[in-house]
Specification:
The complex is a heterodimer of chains A (about 210) and B (about 750). By secondary structure, chain A is mainly α. Chain A has helices spanning about 1-15, 20-35, 65-75, 80, 95-105, 110-120, 140-150, 160-170, 185-195, 200-205; one strand spanning about 125-130. In chain A, helix 1 crosses helix 2 and helix 5 crosses helix 6 (about 110-120). Chain B is of the alpha/beta class and about 750 residues long. Classes of the chains: A mainly alpha (about 210), B alpha/beta (about 750). Chains A and B meet through helix 2, strand 1 and helix 9 of A and helix 1 and strand 1 of B.
Chain lengths: ~210, ~750
């Protein structure tokens, strides 16, 4: 046992995660699963980003919404449009009125914007296809995750919220329409909960 | 490992990781078919949301439950434009925040996959989907040619829809609006009106020290169960009141009683007079409050006679009398099994006389508050109305009949022979949400919006103090664009019939808004029209000032009607009403089918309760099928052997055994006891005597496991709940040792 304690101590010193037990767990996982060291990304302090990838299908959407132009080129914060994420369990698709707030004047000559304007004038929101979903028996809340990793996270700069979103949604700002790049399976959730000391009671998610 | 902080759980994790060398949580990485879905479901944003709307967070709106006539206020949680959950409205004077299982399950009616979505007209014998225009045109032309020979057959109604229905009926020259409810309080209403001058007096269980219920299942189905369950909670706290139940088979109320006395249906009046006799002869009360004739009648019901007629011993009568006297004021109630008999009026008269004798009038029984706007007042249901409709239909009095919110082809007693009589009506127009027996027999089917998609108002049939007009507002937009609200349909029909005063209203919403503006100032309480309208919708009801009147007591003949003797059919049938299936209207709600009965724990099926001694005589045990035969027909049903039923009674609950009522009702295997019931009526009120039917019970030899939760009635000596026998409890008043 002594060896393990020493190793875990050493490991702790290199980690921002507080508990030694968790450090031990992470180390064991690192050794046994070959997952790498689990060091947090620089932009999100006090966090271990979840591991795992998924190669999602391309989902055709009614309008090829370019996330890259908005979030990357123009540097718009994710929460500007997905404004409900910090207040509700769902992040919400921005209301059409929000799109039109800018696009009644910006880029009105672009075909995609004309498509959007058509929807707006018909009083009909576009019927988007859901890319990220969890089963109905899973209670996932955006609000709690944003509180933990952004608003109640000491040293976290809210400008870098996209790094937190990327935990589960991948690097959306490099995509046009969103694609699923994380598995969003229970294992994916639970490993991240263990690494970040999230709640581990069954009923937290299955209620 | 002592001194180490690795606990058992971590140790196991460690062993799992290192020992097997496999990936932990591997099962959790298996994507389910659901998580695999990408781009299958749609997600639609708001176009321009209200500022307070946040997807994922519910907004609560007030409305009124329509699942039974008691009119409980509800708050509905609405998320992303869908109603997801109902709770009782905490401010409602009717239910004060609670809601029963039927109210909770009413959402399954709203989202029911069997809802009718398109108007239908019978063409060549089959119901065929047509446009609203075509259906309404057909109705209008037939009504126009009917020359006033039009009838309305509805469930309990009140408020602005009832007012509009009156306007329409008057316009087309019809005068017959039959308000039919299988589960009603109509015999008592008739007798109360005569004896107290108030059809539905106000009861205060919370002010009583003892309650004697003759089959009044006030915790589940009688009059206003959620209201009385709140009173009951107060009655049982503090100085705990005593509840005594006398009934043919144990109801939920009976199961809560301190003392449960089995009685044959129809003999409750004899028992009531027996108790009155004890009270007077033992000088516990002053008999002079009753007239001489009544006292003379009571004096005939001495202990020996009562015991001979009912099997209830003198000691029981004395104990009941003592409880009622010592814990005065008390309250005596008569429910369905007591009322719904050939001598039902006399039973209620005896019960009322007992209340008068005990001095309860003015203490636990008060005058009702009449709702000040007469045109909105409740039309409480009765079964005499159905009998009257059947008679009129049989005589060819109706060219057109509108049927709304009632399913008489299922619930009419066989003795009424309604099928043949209804067929004589030229055009049967069903305003309905579901394909039930009556709707599928109609010639025109107009699909209605659900109660949570429609506007309306209701005045509860039992108006509690501070009660008033309930507002029913839509909790979401209709699921189907091709359904219409009742008020809107009536408005279209009435306009077509030439009601010019209604032309100013574009829709029923406008009519309702104008109706609120026209309320008397006393109700508006100084608010402007706009403020009153908005406050009413916000609160979910409009309170009216309490005009506590007094009751005028008048006692008539109390003599009881003797039971019909008959050797062919020796047993009584109790078609018991249960919260859940109720009168059968809830058989299409899977939550309620799945909910085990509180007494027998049976679900998705019917059962027959038999006393162990009767079952032994018959040679049947739980799960055996018996045949229950009356002069009207027979049915086969599984036996539940149970002490909570009178030995001469077989109880088969009503509500199951539908021929038509959508996919969920067709999955259950139940039977309909109403099809065994003859056409007997209570002589005085004309109410159908549902508890007067005599039956014969025989063994079929078939047997199967009963579909019920919980396999054992015994604790097998494990002392899960310590109990004492009633005798021990009585001797020690609960103070003795708990004996398992």
């Amino acid at each position: 046992m002594l060896n393990i304690r020493i190793v875990s101590k050493l490991f702790d010193s290199g980690m921002r995660v507080v508990s030694r037990r968790r450090g031990l767990m992470a180390l064991l996982m690192a050794c046994c699963l070959g997952l790498g060291s689990g060091v947090a990304q620089a932009e999100v302090p006090n966090a271990v980003a979840p591991k795992g990838t998924h190669s999602g299908e391309h989902v055709p959407q009614p309008i090829d919404f370019p996330h890259d132009i908005h979030a990357d080129i123009n540097g718009i914060n994710c929460m500007y449009c997905h404004t409900y994420a910090r207040r509700s369990k769902v992040a919400g698709i921005p209301p059409t009125s929000k799109c039109m707030g800018c696009h009644s004047v910006i880029a009105t000559d672009k075909p995609r914007i004309q498509q959007l304007t058509e929807y707006w004038e018909k009083n009909e929101p576009p019927r988007w296809k859901k890319v990220h979903d969890v089963p109905d028996f899973v209670h996932f809340t955006h609000e709690k995750h944003l509180q933990r990793f952004v608003f109640e996270n000491e040293g976290m700069n809210v400008e870098n919220v996209d790094q937190v979103c990327a935990f589960c949604h991948g690097d959306v700002k490099k995509m046009t329409v969103a694609e699923k790049t994380k598995p969003l399976t229970m294992g994916f959730c639970v490993r991240c909960h263990e690494a970040n000391e999230g709640p581990s009671d069954c009923w937290h998610c299955h209620k | 490992m002592s001194g180490n902080d690795i606990n058992r759980r971590d140790f196991l994790k460690f062993m799992g990781l290192g020992g097997a060398g496999a990936v932990t949580l591997s099962g959790c990485d298996m994507p389910t078919t659901v998580t695999l879905e990408e781009g299958k479901e749609e997600v639609v944003s708001y176009l321009a949301p209200e500022e307070y709307v946040i997807p994922g967070i519910g907004v609560w709106y007030a409305s009124t439950c329509q699942q039974c006539p008691s009119g409980c206020g509800v708050h509905g949680r609405v998320r992303e434009g869908r109603v997801l959950k109902l709770e009782g409205n905490p401010d409602s004077p009717v239910n004060a925040g609670v809601l029963c299982q039927m109210g909770q399950a009413s959402l399954q009616g709203h989202y029911n996959p069997d809802r009718i979505t398109k108007p239908m007209v019978r063409k060549g014998g089959n119901l065929t989907e047509v446009s609203w225009e075509e259906a309404i045109e057909l109705v209008n032309s037939k009504v126009g040619a009917a020359n006033g020979k039009v009838a309305m057959l509805t469930g309990a109604m009140s408020g602005h829809q009832a007012e509009l229905m009156d306007t329409y009926l008057a316009k087309i020259g019809g005068k017959d609006h039959f308000v039919y409810e299988t589960i009603n309080n109509a015999v008592a209403e008739a007798v109360n009106a005569e004896m107290f001058g108030s059809a539905q007096p106000r009861y205060n269980l919370d002010k009583a020290g003892a309650v004697l219920s003759f089959g009044a299942d006030f915790l589940a189905t009688w009059v206003s169960p959620m209201h009385f369950s709140q009173q009951y909670a107060k009655f049982r706290t503090g100085n705990r009141g005593v509840l005594i139940a006398v009934e043919p088979n144990m109801s939920l109320t009976g199961a809560n009683a301190d003392m449960w006395v089995p009685a044959k249906p129809g003999t409750e009046g004899v028992i009531a007079l027996g108790v009155a006799n004890v009270l007077i002869s033992k000088k516990m009360v002053d008999g002079s409050v009753l007239p001489v004739d009544a006292l003379a009648t009571i004096s005939q019901y001495g202990v020996d006679k009562v015991t001979a007629e009912t099997g209830v011993g003198g000691d029981v009568l004395v104990r009941i009398a003592t409880y009622l006297k010592e814990r005065s004021p008390s309250l005596v109630l008569a429910g369905a099994s007591a009322q719904s008999n050939t001598g039902g009026s006399q039973v209620v008269a005896a019960v009322n006389a007992l209340n008068i004798l005990l001095g309860n009038v003015g203490k636990t029984i008060g005058a009702e508050d009449a709702f000040p706007v007469k045109s909105l007042a409740p039309r409480r249901g009765s079964s005499a109305a159905l009998a009257a409709f059947a008679k009129g239909a049989d005589a060819g009095d109706y060219e057109v009949a509108f049927i709304y919110n009632t399913n008489p082809l299922y619930s009419a007693p066989a003795g009424l022979e309604l099928n043949g009589k209804l067929a004589k009506v030229g055009l049967k127009v069903a305003l309905s949400m579901f394909p039930d027996e009556t709707t599928l027999a109609a010639d025109v089917v107009l699909p209605l919006a659900s109660p949570y998609e429609d506007w309306g108002t209701q005045v509860p049939g039992y108006l509690p103090s501070e009660g008033g007009l309930n507002v029913q507002q839509p909790l979401m937009r209709p699921l189907y664009s091709t359904v219409k609200g009742l008020g809107d349909v009536l408005l279209v029909l009435a306009k077509a019939a030439g009601a010019e005063e209604l032309n100013q209203y574009a829709d029923f919403y406008a009519y309702l808004q104008a109706g609120f503006a026209a309320m008397p100032a006393s109700i508006k309480g100084g608010m402007s029209d706009a403020e009153f309208w908005s406050k009413s919708r916000q609160k979910g009801f409009v309170a009216v000032a309490n005009s506590q009147g007094s009751l005028n007591v008048k006692v008539g003949d109390l003599a009881q009607v003797a039971d019909k003797a008959g050797s062919d059919f020796p047993m009584h049938l109790a078609p018991a009403a249960r919260a859940g299936m109720y009168d059968g209207r809830n058989a299409n709600l899977p939550w309620l089918q799945e909910q085990p009965d509180p007494i027998t724990k049976v679900f998705w099926d019917s059962w027959a309760e038999l006393h162990p001694s009767t079952a032994a005589k018959l040679g049947v045990k739980e799960g055996d099928f018996i045949r229950v035969e009356s002069a009207q027909g027979s049915l086969e049903v599984q036996v539940y052997v149970y002490k909570g039923v009178h030995p001469d009674v077989v109880a088969v609950p009503m509500g199951r055994g539908h021929d038509e009522y959508g996919r969920f009702a067709s999955r259950e295997k139940g039977v309909n006891p109403l099809k065994l019931i003859g056409g007997d009526v209570d002589a005085k009120s004309g109410e159908l005597a549902l508890y007067s039917t005599k039956v014969r019970v025989s063994k079929t030899g078939r047997s199967a496991e009963m579909p019920r939760l919980g396999g054992s009635e015994s604790q097998v000596g494990r002392r899960l709940v310590s109990t004492v026998s009633a005798d021990v409890y009585r001797r020690t008043e609960g103070g003795g040792n708990n004996v398992a």
